[in-house]
Amino acid sequence: MNAHSIRTLPAAALAIVLVACGSTEPEVTASAPLDRVWRATEAGVSETVLELNAGGTARLVEADLAGRGCTASSGSWTSDGTSLVLRLTPRGGAPESDVRTFDYDVSNDRLVLSRAGTSTTFARGSSVPSCVSYGFGSWQGTLSARIDDVSWTFSNFTVDAEGVRGGTLVIVACSDAAVGCDPTNAVMILRVTTPSGGLTPGSYPLGTIDSGFYGLVNLFPDDPDFPGFDSLRLTPSGAMLLIDAAEDRIEATFEFRANERASNAPPAPDGSTFALVTNGVINLEYR
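Request: output the structure for the sequence above.
Response:
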């Protein structure tokens, strides 16, 4: 166990005990339908959501409602019909798993996890929230690129990552850290969309707003007459490589070339007709 291990939940939530690692394949009897989404809530105190998939993967979100904190973990689960074992790694943590074991009782709409006389009752849930949805933290990390061969590092950005499961990620980067960041004062807008399903790691070449990778660059966001350059009217190579895509973590590299957003668009104040973006790096985490 190390500094990245999952914190111990309050008494109203899960009980924890470390056990030795074993098989990562689920062993579930027909009378124990564990592969569900389960939610336990103590109003105003804590909320725990556990997803057990039939393929043996698990996700756990633990929200401390009173302390305004949240941790998300993923890994695997096994069961021998009477005990449930979770092997989890917190997002952004070390690779060593935090292993937890419980006695359990399960029905179609209720799961009780117990240890040493302490029990937590879960009800059937429909979906697993991300830590972002609780709004307890903020996006932190780095977003940088070379724009027309000049290095830019952004500390003011907004991230719309809650659509990642549905197939959309939008990042807006601004240069003025003293104001809120939105498309009206953006230096760069990055959007990745897939026609169906959620975003997964891989390369997304330049495309349209509805499919592929879209980029916008505007080095003059304070000029109301200049709309900036975007990638929609270009065919040369450009892409975003998603290394990690989740509601609470985005890791990627990108590059693209952009020109006037319309054939009759006014020129840039400096007379440029296109923008070249290279060496783009995104490493952001919600915490």
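Residues 138-286 form one domain.
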